[in-house]
Specification:
alpha+beta; Glutamine Phosphoribosylpyrophosphate, subunit 1, domain 1; 8-stranded mixed beta sheet; 10 helices
């Protein structure tokens, strides 16, 4: 009797320990951009709208995974929701360049095969994330830009829209404000730190990228990122989102990663691949590697955030700004959406 009681007690202790210290298995993590996101500046209606669209994106991704579709299908489905929403700086909600245009970038990567595709500077493709996937699956290339990428998207039977589709009053007003303040400049990577510290970049105009990482039933990872870039940008500036290894990366051996923030710093630090490398070579956890990579960005003067997930379904969502639109869904379908610190 005593032995039986002790055995039962031991089982209870093990179960309790697992419940307290065990980590949930996630199948998808998404972000909708990082930046100066403060609850005091958010109306209840707008906060509810963000939560609704982030939830919808997670639901679409989860439905794909639950139906046995690939992680790439789930990433594309989730990002479509955010690209079709005017709330996020991607697709429909893309910001305007200095010349009053919407120029979008996107990338995808398959963790199983290390295949990747991206587009940059596109203006008429409704869902740039699908164009990035088409480049990966239907061409021998990794990146296409501008008119060439648009011609390829049209040839691939993707939805082409008039540029006016991307107009939103909020983004247009944001451009006018940026021009008036003359606070957003296109700063080359070799620009001096002194120039940056003097305020030639207004941080509030450069955030808003969306991204997703998914883990399917076959144990394969995929990552995708889509953005409208930086408000008032000039000279065809391209950030980190469409650059494989900088803003987007996936490898089944390590993790899937999608970044958001001050793109120039993510490019210079090759952040997404850096996380993967630290996990592979230094055997760091996805959480520790993600934090270390973001710390490097911060030390150089950059900011933003990222999402990452490993093959075991462990998730990291670090950011060094006031907030980041983000959310997760577990293997059993539990959704969690967060905005503030």
């Amino acid at each position: 009797m005593k032995l039986k009681l002790n055995y039962s007690l031991l089982c209870l202790m093990i179960f309790t320990c697992m419940a307290v210290h065990g980590q949930k298995k996630y199948v998808m993590v998404i972000h909708g951009g990082a930046g100066t996101i403060l609850k005091k500046n958010m109306t209840a209606e707008k906060e509810a709208a963000y939560i609704a669209d982030l939830t919808k994106a997670l639901q679409k991704g989860y439905e794909a995974i639950k139906a046995g579709k690939t992680s790439m299908d789930a990433v594309e489905a989730a990002i479509h929701v955010m690209e079709d929403s005017p709330l996020f700086n991607a697709g429909k909600g893309s910001v305007f360049t200095h010349d009053g245009k919407n120029e979008m970038d996107a990338a995808v990567m398959d963790g199983k095969t290390l295949s990747a595709g991206s587009v940059a500077g596109v203006t008429v493709i409704r869902n740039p994330i699908s164009a990035a996937r088409a480049v990966m699956e239907k061409s021998e290339h990794v990146m296409m830009v501008g008119a060439g990428a648009e011609a390829f998207a049209k040839q691939s039977k993707l939805e082409i829209v008039d540029p006016s589709y991307f107009y939103t009053k909020e983004r247009w007003d944001g451009l006018q404000k940026a021009i008036r303040e003359d606070s957003v400049k296109a700063v080359l990577d070799h620009g001096s730190k002194k120039t940056m510290k003097l305020g030639t970049i207004n941080k509030d105009y450069k955030f808003g990228t969306v991204g997703a990482v998914a883990l399917d039933k076959s144990g394969n990872l995929a990552a995708g990122t889509s953005t409208g870039g930086m408000t008032n940008k000039r000279y065809g500036r391209v950030g980190d989102a469409p650059i494989i290894g900088a803003g987007t990366y996936a490898n089944n051996a390590t993790a899937g990663i999608s970044c958001t923030g001050w793109g120039e710093f993510y490019i210079r630090n090759v952040v997404a691949h850096d996380i993967s490398a630290m996990m592979e070579y230094k055997k760091m956890s996805v959480a520790d590697a993600s934090k270390a990579a973001l710390d490097k960005v911060g030390k150089m003067g950059g900011d933003g955030g990222l999402i990452a997930m490993d093959k075991q379904g462990h998730v990291a969502m670090p950011f060094n700004t006031e907030g980041m639109y983000r959310g997760t869904v577990t293997a059993d379908g539990k959704i969690e959406v967060l905005i503030y610190k």
